[in-house]
Amino acid sequence: MCLAVPMRLVEICGNLGTVELEGVRRTVSLDLLEGPAVGDYVIVHAGFAIERLDPGEARKTLDLFRELEGAAGGP
Amino acid sequence: MNDERLLLAHGGGGRLSRELLRDVFLPRFRSGILARLEDAAVLEAPGERLAFTTDSYVVHPLFFPGGDIGRLAVFGTINDLAVMGAVPRYLSCGFILEEGFERAVLERILDSMRGAATEADVEVVTGDTKVVERGKADGLFLNTAGIGAVPRGVELGADRIRPGDKVLLSGGLGEHGLAVLTQREGLKFRSEIRSDCAPIHRLCADLLRASAPGGIRFFRDPTRGGLAATLNEAAAGRPWGIRIEEEAIPLREDVRGLCEILGLDPLHIANEGKLVAVAAPGEADRILQAMRANPLGARGAIIGEVVEKPAGRVVLRSAVGGLRILDLPAGEPLPRIC
Amino acid sequence: MRFLGEFRDPGRLRAAREALRRAAEGLPFTTLMEVCGTHTMNAFRFGLRGMLPPNVRLLSGPGCPVCVTPNDYLDRAIALARRQDTLVATFGDLMRVPGSRSSLERERAAGADVRVVYSPRDALEFARREAGKKVLFLGVGFETTAPLVASTVLEARASGTVNFLVLVGHKLVPPALEALLEARNGGLHGFLLPGHVSAVIGADAYRPLARDRGIPCVIAGFEPLDMIQGIVLLLEQVRARTAEVRNQYARVVTPGGNRRAREVLERVFEPCDADWRGLGRIPLSGLRLRPEFREHDAEAVLPAEGLEPPREHPGCRCGEVLQGLVVPPECPLFGRACRPDTPAGACMVSSEGTCAAYYKYGKDHFADE
Question: pLDDT > 90: what percent of chain C?
């Protein structure tokens, strides 16, 4: 029940929006988001945007074990 | 099999399809040729070997991005001949039409078939048409059968495959299945994905020409059930298995994206213009070059190899490094939330 | 793919695996549990289980709403599908789940109008277009999905689409975690929590659980990097003997969650007792439509004819699998009578059922070489 993917919000029309991932687009409901803006990345589940994605936090997560990137052995 | 009624999955190209063939059809048509379950039957006729095949097309919708049922019916049958090494020559087509079917739509489909036949240099030489009562045929059921000659010296089959052989794929997976799926109501995704529906007989001929005799062991076109079904069918019951590398598999980015959104596996989705080839290790690079020189193989790649263990199975090394079994799909690919 | 590919980057994964190795070093045998079907599926899809150090075990708990949906829900859906005047719209996940005697897939073969949808709003669209039919949407899913269904019910109400009905089967995660700990009586050293459920309910929702039960909790995303980081953060807590809620999925999950989504959910649904496959009845662990939305409640509006008492497949150990008490190969039916195309229980047929994942992605000798 957690299958949801980050997609970019490219258009807003009232309570609906168009989201895009790798050229695939769909209309989704924005009813569950407050103050969405074009250009936001949102998590899309079953035709609804359920949350905004925070790029700053994403960066921090990606860097979490950065100091180990050189230290690791083979794959 | 204790299902009283058939399920859609029995026609899906996965496990249930196999079982239906094995348990219901094969015991009744006692034929050694049929029992090989190859894409076309290779028949001895005085002076030559003929390849003969048939397929029925029930796709919905009838028209989809990149093709239609007519084009699919012509190329699909050509491809079944091509993967047995044959040069396709003649087709039959049988139409079962539902009462009330629009004549203009029939004409559009026939025009498309004529164009496809010309493009592929084959001739439709015989056919049949029936009309059934409204509600009995879901629009149109189309059957094509095809015949072609297999040149002397061309011997292809899964029984020729050996450990160490390389597995090649001519291009991106999942395009046909997704092009059709996106037309289904209730899905409504907009994308540039088009069916890859195409005749691969010239590609097959190019590869055969480029390789030493026996250098190509096996061809198959991965249609319903996807690459997973094709590889599993080849490996089932054999003393070898197949290991493929997820990262090596060509995939359009939008196909990858849509599969992530819907929770689908691109390896389970139908293709209609792709070729899987198994080649002797010493021939693989040369065959890859020949593949890429053909427009239908421009994104071709070596995606894996034949291994001793696990015998009879297909395994995939994921892009992340772990190994997992790639099984026959259970049924038609279904979008999920979980 | 933006915000997906970076979390699968081989260099970062190598670093994370090194962090995992260090985090596990010297720890006693540690059992962690994930409670999300997508976590189960992805652990196998990415070959993560084979990457775990030998002293760390990751169990799959009751995270798949399909698995925890008991037979009587499916039986009712099937009975309603058999009516001439209904169109059943469902997520693909439910199509092959076996009820007591049949499945939606089989019912479709027998002539029932059953259609797979990607979104509940697509089912609402059917209802608008087919005024003569009662469109029955199968509302399963946890707190990730329930707000969507609630929003759709509100939209149906606003547009006067009275033939849009929901057969409600939604369930809630935190009460199930409590019940799980109660049933197991120890032996679990940490929970890997579902990222998207948490996006809705917020990280703070689990604080009482961590505190009162003394169990480390980490909310994790679904990419390989997320899951490995999540396990590392759990192991760090195990070593430090802390029992807190940490949020690995901070790019999506906030402490307070999505307030608007919860408001919509609470306007339409109220908590109720619910039956879970394997865990039995858990108080206030399910949702039902509030009385003012009764006209959209399938159970209230449509009598289910010919409904027989539900029955489980004899020998099926789904219940114990869901509690993490048994691994799939220990079930006598696994791989024999129970396989993905002939499932005996939901754990096998659901694309994210533990048994399906074990079957599809292989047993130990396909672990990382």
Answer: 64
Query: For B81-176, where are the E strands, in sequence order?
Result: 87-98, 123-132, 140-150, 166-169
ipTM exceeding cut-off 0.95 for this assembly: no
Could you tell me the end-to-end alpha-carbon distance of chain C, in angstroms, rounded to an integer?
A: 28
Give the Å distances, CA to CA, from C150 to A48, C93, C138, C166, C293: 12, 20, 13, 10, 10
pLDDT over 50 (residue C364): no
CATH number of C68-172+257-301: 3.40.50.11740
Q: How many angstroms away from the CA of B37 is the closest CA of chain C?
A: 21
Q: Which of C14, C196, C250 sits opposite A4 (nearest CB)?
A: C196
Nearest CA in chain A to C7: A62
**Which CATH number fits the domain A5-66, given the four candidates 2.30.40.10, 3.40.1280.10, 3.10.50.30, 2.30.30.140?**
2.30.30.140
Out of B5, B324, B335, closest to residue C47 by CB: B324
So what CATH class is B158-325? alpha beta
CB contact under 8 A, C148 and A50: yes
Q: What was the pLDDT predicted at C347?
A: 78
Residue with more model confidence, C342 or C11: C11
The nearest alpha carbon in chain A to B258 belongs to A24
In the CATH scheme, what is the homologous superfamily, with its name and number, of domain C5-65+184-247?
HypD, alpha/beta domain 1 (3.40.50.11750)
Task: Round to whole Å and give the CA distance between C114 and C136.
Answer: 9
- pTM assigned to the model: 0.90
Cross-chain residue pair C3–A58, CB shorter than 8 Å: yes
Residue located via tokens 């990280």: C203
A24 vs B263: CB contact, 8 Å cut-off?
no
**What are the domain boundaries of chain B?**
38-150, 158-325
State whether residue B257 sits within 8 Å of chain A by CB. yes
